[in-house]
Design a protein that fits this description.
heterodimer, A: alpha/beta, Rossmann fold, 2 domains, 4-stranded antiparallel β-sheet, 26% strand, B: mainly alpha, ABC transporter involved in vitamin B12 uptake, BtuC, two-stranded antiparallel sheet, 11 helices, 3% strand
């Protein structure tokens, strides 16, 4: 069953066509990579799905329901969460408060104790136990990325969209992150749509890859098919 | 003279802090500069005067009702005037400026140019450490002002609603992606900002009577305090308000009453020359 489906998504910024007629779908319980050269429109697609801005035309369906143009908080409450390439923690709040913002809005009727408990649990899942009362601005880059994922998890997502979570990590950290992301799918049952430039990670972790180039779908298929496709190599390396 | 000028400075400083907190809240969350802030302050003064004098309500009830009504009026203003302007800060700036002129003239039309004053809460004066006699009403205003500030601080720092407010003022878009209904939050925080102006208004109205244009210097001072203390900093509002209140009153006592408002701006310019982001402001990255 497809969890999310986009049909004919087009987005113009003034005269710039960021996306033209993009069709895509992500099956429930899969990890799907979204790759493409810089400026291909990957982050624009994320923004449209998450509701940061509506598409110029086209529709997005989540669990079969049309969510095109809904405000971001409503899409979030339906179960779509995303992280940012450049992390955006609430710097002057503690880690637990950062994560709790998502919990409070996901379970508004729960008690304070439940909110805190759930926030602490999300921090534990990403391996930030011990940092509950640390202000987010004091975390290092890797920890901020983990916090970003914890905060996304706190909103109770069905679809988790990751925007280049591996940038700036060393090879050991990348291995750990791949295992972690696979566990999110295997143990928490999440569906993951993942923008990434680290091809090794895409090869290891994903079942399907969507390639965007200049605002269009270039192809999609298994990771092996994608890396061996001449069009993809051409898009990345040119003539 | 020093003691009594400081005391006056303290009272007015707390009121400045209270008004500035309202401005700061609205700027921090909505990025809207409310030029009608002073008119909301005056509106609450008129309401409390009306309820207490004309309808004969007990003054405390009149004050509570006045603040509640201004809160509702604030929600209404956000819904009808501010909400359609999101995305372009300039429109809301112009709209609130117009609103301030409209309200001033409405007050003039309805209440006339005369100063109106709700009844005081308590009479008499107290001898402070054998130094001077100070009006009980002003001392009560000081206590009430501090009490409201403490409540606001507790709400922002300790409650979950406060945490969401802080999250939204640090990164609005991210808060929305975490499921915060920012449209409703905007409405609430605008109402709350107006209610804080109203609280300052009802507290100070028995001391300084309300006139249709008495809100203008109050709002101007609140903007000075917010910039002096640093955008988005609650402590900045408190310290900035106190500094401004004290400097103005001591300056008026020792130098000249005519230049009262100049002292505040001199302090502002001095602080901004050394710390452009204000006393407690976050440095822009």
């Amino acid at each position: 069953m497809e969890l999310i489906k986009g049909v004919g998504i087009t987005k113009h910024f003034g005269g710039v066509k960021a996306l033209s007629g993009v069709d895509f779908k992500v099956e429930q319980g899969t990890i799907v990579g979204l790759i493409g050269p810089n400026g291909a429109g990957k982050t624009t697609l994320f923004n449209i799905v998450a509701g940061a801005f509506p598409p110029t035309s086209g529709t997005v369906h989540f669990e079969g329901v049309d969510i095109t143009g809904l405000p971001a908080y409503k899409i979030c409450r339906r179960g779509v969460a995303r992280t940012f390439q450049v992390t955006r923690p609430f710097g002057e709040m503690s880690c637990v408060e950062n994560v709790a913002v998502g919990v409070v809005n996901h379970q508004p009727d729960a008690s304070r104790a439940v909110w805190t408990q759930r926030a602490v649990e999300c921090l534990r899942i990403v391996g930030l136990e011990g940092f509950e009362s640390t202000e987010a601005r004091h975390l290092n880059v890797v920890q901020k990325k983990k916090l970003e994922i914890a905060r996304a998890l706190a909103t109770g997502p069905k679809l988790l969209m990751l925007d280049e979570v591996l940038g700036g990590l060393n090879s050991q950290e990348i291995q750990d992150a791949i295992t972690f992301i696979r566990n999110l799918r295997d143990q928490l049952g999440l569906t993951i749509l993942w923008i990434e430039h680290v091809m090794g990670a895409i090869m290891q972790a994903t079942e399907k890859v969507i390639v965007l180039d200049q605002g269009r779908i270039l192809m999609n298929g298994s990771p092996e098919e994608v890396v061996n496709d001449s069009r993809v190599i051409h898009a990345y390396l040119g003539d | 003279m020093f003691a009594i000028a400081s005391m006056n400075g303290l009272v007015i400083g707390v009121i400045y802090a209270l008004t500035a907190l309202g401005v700061s809240l609205v700027v921090g969350i909505m990025n809207v500069v409310n030029f009608a802030h002073g008119e909301f302050y005056i509106l609450a003064g008129y309401f409390s005067f009306l309820f207490a004098n004309a309808l004969g309500m007990p003054i405390i009830a009149a004050m509570g009702l006045a603040v509640a009504l201004v809160f509702v009026f604030g929600l209404l203003v956000e819904y009808t005037l501010i909400r359609p302007t999101y995305g372009d800060d300039m429109y809301s700036l112009i709209l609130t400026f117009i609103l301030s002129i409209v309200l001033q003239n409405a007050y003039l039309f309805i209440f006339g140019p005369y100063p109106n004053k709700p009844p005081g809460w308590i009479k008499g004066a107290t001898n402070i450490f054998d130094l001077f006699f100070y009006g009980n009403q002003r001392m009560a205003a000081l206590v009430a002002g501090i009490a409201v500030i403490v409540v606001v601080f507790a709400m922002i720092k300790l409650t979950w609603f406060g945490r969401i407010i802080r999250a939204a003022s640090q990164d609005r878009g991210m808060a929305e992606l975490n499921g915060v209904n920012t449209t409703r939050l905007n409405m609430l925080s605008f109402g709350l900002g107006c209610a804080l102006a109203a609280a300052a208004g009802v507290i100070l109205a028995p001391v300084f009577p309300v006139t249709p244009t008495a809100g203008v210097p109050v709002a101007l001072t609140a903007f000075v305090v917010v910039v002096l203390g640093g955008m988005g900093s609650m402590w900045g509002c408190i310290i900035g308000g106190l500094i401004l209140g004290l400097v103005e009153n001591l300056g008026a006592a020792y130098l000249s009453t005519g230049y009262k408002h100049v002292f505040g701006f001199v302090i502002l310019i001095m602080v901004l020359a050394i710390r452009p982001s204000g006393l407690f402001g976050r440095k822009e990255a």
